[in-house]
Design goal:
With 289 residues, this protein is an alpha/beta fold. Helices cover 29% and strands 17% of the residues. The protein folds into two domains: 55 residues, no CATH class; 228 residues, 3-Layer(aba) Sandwich (Rossmann fold). The protein has seven helices and twelve strands. Strand 2 and strand 3 form a beta hairpin.
Length: 289
C-alpha cells in the first residue's frame, strides 16, 4: 500500500536520514525510531500523520490551479502583500483564514483565564476542517473559474490605514498579462502553514516576520480586533504562540520564502511576483501566452 509521510519527521532518503517538512510518497518509507518531534501547540493536530490518501483527496495532487500561500506574524504585512499580489494577478481567487474563526462564545475555544481572553493564536481557534474542505473543493473543479476580487479590501481585519498604504505603493512595472490564463488561488492567514494539507498544496509560500518589539508596537496601534486585546495578551499568548509556530513550521524550511516585515513593500512585492511567475512557467508552460 502506498503511504504518505507528512511534516517534520525524520525520513529515510537514500542512505541517510533527513528532517523534512515535505510530503513524501513511497511504498517503503521508513520512519526513523526515536525521532525528535518538536511539536508546538499550534500544530498539535497536524504533526507526522501516516495517511492512506484515498477517497475525497485522491485526485488532489492534479490541481489545475496555481496556489500561493501568504502567511506571517500578526501585523507583519501579510494581508498587504496579498492585496499587492491581487493587484498583479487581478484574476486570482482568495481564501482568507481569518474568515474561519469560531464565534467568540464557541466552546471549542481555549480560554486563558490569566489574561481573560480567548487564545486566538492556535489552529483550534479556527474551523480548519471547513477551510481545508473549501480549498479542496476549489482545487478539484474541472474547469477552474478565474476570480474577480476587485481591490481586495474586503479582507478581514484590514484597516483604513492599510488601504491608504496600498494607495501609495509604487507600481513595480511587472507585466503579468502573459499569465492571465493560469487560474490562481491565494491563501492568506497567520497559521495556514500549520495545516499540512494547505502547506503541501501551495506552489509558492511567503512568510513575513518582525522583531518582538516591532510586532508589539504595530499590534498596539490596531483597532480592528473584536474582542480587543486585554492587558498581557501579547506577552502571554501572541508572541509565545508565534514563536512556537515559527520554530516548528517556518524556520529553516526551504519551501518557504521568509521576508522581513520592515522591508520596503515594493521590494517584497517585486520579489514575490518574480518567484510566482517563474514557478508558473514551470507548472503550466502550456498556459503562458
Amino acid at each position: 500500500m502506498w503511504i504518505f509521510v507528512n511534516c517534520y519527521c525524520c525520513v529515510k532518503i537514500g542512505t541517510g536520514w533527513k528532517q523534512e517538512s515535505k510530503l513524501y510518497t513511497c511504498s517503503r518509507t521508513v520512519i526513523k525510531p526515536n525521532c525528535d518531534f518538536k511539536g508546538s501547540r499550534i500544530r498539535k493536530d497536524y504533526f507526522c500523520r501516516l495517511t492512506d490518501r484515498r477517497g475525497s483527496l485522491r485526485n488532489f495532487e492534479h490541481s489545475k490551479m496555481f496556489v500561493i500561500g501568504v502567511s506571517g506574524v500578526t501585523c507583519g504585512g501579510k494581508t498587504t502583500l496579498s492585496q499587492l499580489l491581487q493587484r498583479s494577478f487581478p484574476w486570482c481567487r482568495v481564501i482568507y483564514q481569518d474568515s474561519y474563526f469560531f464565534d467568540d462564545d464557541d466552546p471549542r475555544h481555549v480560554r486563558l483565564e490569566e489574561v481573560d481572553h480567548v487564545n486566538y493564536e492556535i489552529l483550534s481557534a479556527l474551523n480548519m476542517e471547513q477551510m481545508e474542505k473549501d480549498v479542496v473543493t476549489t482545487l478539484q473543479e474541472d474547469q477552474p473559474i478565474l476570480g474577480t476580487n476587485g481591490d481586495g479590501y474586503d479582507a478581514p481585519n484590514f484597516e483604513t490605514s492599510g488601504k491608504e498604504l496600498l494607495d501609495n505603493v509604487q507600481d513595480i512595472g511587472f507585466d503579468t498579462s502573459k499569465y492571465r490564463k493560469v487560474p490562481i488561488l491565494l491563501l492568506e492567514g497567520f497559521t495556514i502553514f500549520g495545516s499540512e494539507l494547505l502547506f503541501d498544496k501551495c506552489d509558492a509560500r511567503f512568510f513575513l516576520t518582525l522583531t518582538k518589539q516591532e510586532c508589539y508596537e504595530r499590534r498596539s496601534k490596531r483597532t480592528t480586533y473584536i474582542p480587543p486585546d486585554t492587558p498581557g495578551y501579547f506577552e502571554k499568548c501572541i508572541w509565545p504562540e508565534f514563536t512556537a509556530h515559527y520554530e516548528s513550521c517556518i524556520a529553516n524550511n526551504p519551501g518557504i520564502q521568509v521576508f522581513n516585515g520592515t522591508t520596503p513593500l515594493e521590494s517584497v512585492w517585486k520579489e514575490s511576483v518574480e518567484m510566482i511567475a517563474a514557478d508558473m512557467e514551470k507548472k503550466f508552460p502550456q498556459l503562458i501566452l
